[in-house]
């Protein structure tokens, strides 16, 4: 089995959430770098979240919500 075959499939929710995250960032006229800095994370990881290429831990969800100045509930409120 190759390394690529062992990769875990990303759930559809993560892909849709990534689209929502990107739309929210653009709506607030913020760059990836600005949100990443405010959240204390690497911009490359934030891009992966936005593209739905990486799952996010709950602690990271909280940090990103804080960077936007909203609650995690508000961040997760989008049409799925």
TrEMBL record:
Keywords: DNA-binding. Gene3D superfamilies: lambda repressor-like DNA-binding domains. The keyword DNA-binding applies. CDD domains: HTH_XRE. InterPro entries: Cro/C1-type_HTH (IPR001387), Lambda_DNA-bd_dom_sf (IPR010982), TransReg_Diox_bact_type (IPR050807). Residues 21-75 form the HTH cro/C1-type domain. SUPFAM superfamilies: lambda repressor-like DNA-binding domains. The keyword Nucleotidyltransferase does not apply. Pfam families: HTH_3. This is Helix-turn-helix transcriptional regulator. It comes from Flagellimonas profundi. The lineage of its organism: Bacteria, Pseudomonadati, Bacteroidota, Flavobacteriia, Flavobacteriales.
């Amino acid at each position: 089995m190759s390394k690529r075959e062992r990769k875990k499939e990303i759930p559809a929710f993560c892909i849709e959430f990534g689209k929502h995250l990107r739309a929210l960032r653009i709506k607030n006229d913020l760059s990836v770098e600005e949100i990443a800095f405010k959240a204390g994370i690497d911009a490359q990881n934030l891009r992966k979240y936005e593209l739905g290429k990486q799952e996010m831990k709950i602690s990271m969800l909280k940090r990103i919500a804080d960077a936007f100045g909203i609650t995690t509930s508000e961040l997760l409120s989008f049409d799925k």
